[in-house]
Amino acid sequence: MPEPAKRPKSSYIRFAAEQPNECWQADFTHYRLTRPDGRPGTDVEILSWIDDHSRYALTVTAHPRITGAVVRQQFRETVPRMVFRPQR
The sheet that has 40-51: what strands, in order across it? Predict the structure, then answer.
């Protein structure tokens, strides 16, 4: 039986917030560090908070393991630094 046809990439609609700070997204990835002598080192998970409009990385932090508590804490630390404050 033939494989079903895949949607062309041009058919996907890319979502992006219209204004800065309108929407943030969090993402994390696994990374293995390398020791100075070249041997494999510690495994870490890297958490990034990104402004969906500008794609600006608001914070990038490394942790032994990402948990809900880590995500919540990093969010709470990021918000006060990024909230827009009008200039006088």
Answer: 24-34, 40-51, 57-63
State residue 42's pLDDT score. Answer: 95
Under 8 Å CB-to-CB from 54, ≥6 apart: which residues? 20
H-helix or E-strand spanning residue 69? helix 68-82
Cα maximum dimension of the chain: 68
Radius of gyration (Cα) for the chain, nearest Å?
19
Cα end-to-end distance, the chain, whole Å: 68
CB atoms under 10 Å from CB of 58, counted, come to 19
Q: What pLDDT score does 84 carry?
A: 58
- Residue 37 pLDDT greater than 90, yes or no: yes
Q: What's the average model confidence in pLDDT over 43-47? A: 97
Single pTM value for the model: 0.71
> Domain map of the chain by residue range?
20-81
